[in-house]
Amino acid sequence: MRADEVPGRKRNSKKKPHLFIVFLLLTHLVICLLFLAKNVSHSNTSERLVSSDSVHYVEIARDFAAGDFSMQYVKERPHRQPLYPALLAIALKLGNGNRFMLGAVNIVVAELSILAVYVFTLALLKNRIAAGLSALALAANPFIDREVTARLLTEPLHLLLTICAIFAFLRYVQRQNCLWLFICAGLVGLDYLTRPNGLIMAGAAVGTMAVSDLWMYCAAPAKPLSFFRWSIRIAGIYLVAVLIFLAVSAPSWVPRWTYFGNPFHHGYLENYMWVDSYKEGHVGESYASYTWRDYFAHHHLRNVISRLIHGFRNVYFRIPIMMERAPLLFLFSIGGVWIALRIASREYRFLCLFLFLQMLPLVWTNLSNPTARVPYGSMLPFELFLAALFLAWASEQPRIRAWFIERFAPASPGGPSRTPR
């Protein structure tokens, strides 16, 4: 199937007012503001807003708001990143420390995420039903609602940047325009400035796009360049992408190089790769206590296989079902994987590979760091695009359309039946 034959791209060509997304954004905004106002007005929920991990981001934001950009926090908390505190610093300055203003940062970011899902899926699939339902799935997601109004954490910002990076990724694989590669490199650089596993996402994204380029070259019937000349050319393009990533993420790796001599030093987080429990891994702040040698000194192939099975089961099934409560988005995204592998154009197949690669470290560390927040926050953006693909395909099926018309758009008296658009 060609790139211009993805299900849903032939319909809805007429421009119409985007009333649904406007109504959805306004409704979500009002509800979130009301919940945030309620949370900051009660002492226990107000303290929870800035408790635990959140207090670290607020402390870093206070330094930024005071004009201190020395990144001294890296010495004690190298597992924290600066972009989210920088946004909180703006709210601190504007609101003079008001917690409602701090929480409003998450709400603004969440609104942008909902809008981005709608705009990007509409651009990719040309299907308003798929775009609208995907945006609704995000707006109604209980995980996002909790993260937006109850805590000051990086999940909303990570979600927005990942959504944008996925769109750039799909456009690059679809069009082979290096501009989209460079945009994706910049976006994953921003995501790395948001949280450390953005580094993993960057490697997965760039690696998958490189694989797609190699696949396209090998599949092309006529090759204008020899493999050697093509390799030199593509290596130069990806070198530019890596330099863009490094330039964007410089506020993260430069202080780490200065203080630790390692640009990608993230303290104790590495422990989770090589231990079997959260208690073992959550020791120290600035330096890791375990390495791969410690793990393989006491584990065998059977332990590795068991750990991977445990991680795949939890990360890909138990956690999304638990976090969504009514896991319709999860089920639709599974349908999207099926469509991607069986029917859709190549960009969605490579999206599945991108998802698989960037989730591998989270699968591996699920045993030692069994939190649901981090893996689900990383999977959710991919679910949205894959679910939209399935919904676009489903809305084009005559039997499904007939069933929908029969139940939700019955014929009016004296007139023809209404056709959903």
Fraction of residues in β-strands: under 5%
Helix content: over 70%
Which secondary-structure class do the elements indicate?
mainly alpha
**Total helix count?**
20
Spatial shape: globular
- The separation of the N and C termini measures 24 Å
Average predicted confidence as pLDDT = 90
Largest sheet, in brief, is: none
Low-confidence stretches: 10-14, 417-421
Radius of gyration: 23 Å
Oligomeric status: single chain
Number of E-type strands: 0
Give your account of this protein's structure.
The chain is mainly alpha-helical and about 425 residues long. It has a domain at about 15-155. The chain has helices at about 20-40, 45-50, 55-65, 75, 85-95, 100-125, 130-140, 140-150, 155-175, 180-195, 200-220, 225-250, 250-260, 280, 290-300, 300-325, 330-340, 345-365, 375-395, 400-410. Helix 1 packs across helix 8 and helix 16 packs across helix 19 (about 375-395). The two termini are about 25 Å apart.
Summarize the structure.
The chain is mostly helical and 421 residues long. Helices cover 72% and strands 0% of the residues. Mean pLDDT is 90; it is low at 10-14 and 417-421.
List keywords for this structure.
mainly alpha
Helix-strand layout with pairing:
Elements: H1 19-41, H2 43-49, H3 53-65, H4 73-76, H5 83-95, H6 99-125, H7 128-139, H8 142-150, H9 155-175, H10 178-194, H11 198-219, H12 227-248, H13 250-260, H14 278-281, H15 292-298, H16 301-324, H17 328-342, H18 346-365, H19 373-395, H20 398-408
Helix pairs in contact: 1-2, 1-6, 1-7, 1-8, 3-5, 5-6, 6-7, 6-8, 6-9, 7-19, 9-10, 9-11, 9-18, 9-19, 10-11, 10-12, 11-12, 11-18, 16-18, 16-19, 17-19, 18-19
